[in-house]
């Protein structure tokens, strides 16, 4: 199983970014996928989840109504997106994609500042 995130960067408060996660090496329609984040000095925290079909999503309260998780399934590859709108400095963190039980990507840095 391989998991790799991309799309991070710097954005001003109120701006938007879209993160991507490419995961492969398994039947894509069999697993839910997650986004987590970790800010400096903080523990890693849950951000969003999408089930195997993309029909069910859940969000942390801190990002609800601002972030949207989605996915595109291919046979042995899945791409998971995290559309992030109305970003604020508290969203600054390294964002990680995860496939259960414990397959993580290397993370992508998101920095929100003026």
Q: How would you describe this protein?
A:
The protein has 114 residues and is mostly beta strands. Helix content is 0%, strand content 53%. It has no helices and eleven strands. The strands form two sheets. Strands 2, 4, 5, 6, 9, 10 and 11 form a seven-stranded mixed beta sheet that branches. A hairpin with a 6-residue loop joins strand 5 (45-50) and strand 6. The mean pLDDT is 96.
Mean pLDDT: 96
How would you classify the quaternary structure?
single chain
| Strand-pairing-aware structural class | mainly beta
| CA-based shape | globular
Rg, alpha carbons:
13 Å
In total, the number of strands is 11
Distance between the termini: 38 Å
Helix count, per DSSP?
0
The biggest sheet amounts to:
7 strands, mixed
Residue share in β-strands: over 45%
What order do the helices and strands follow?
A: EEEEEEEEEEE
* Uncertain runs: none
- Binned, the helix content reads under 10%
Q: Which features does this protein show?
A:
single chain, 4-stranded antiparallel β-sheet, 11 strands, 114 residues, 7-stranded mixed β-sheet, mainly beta
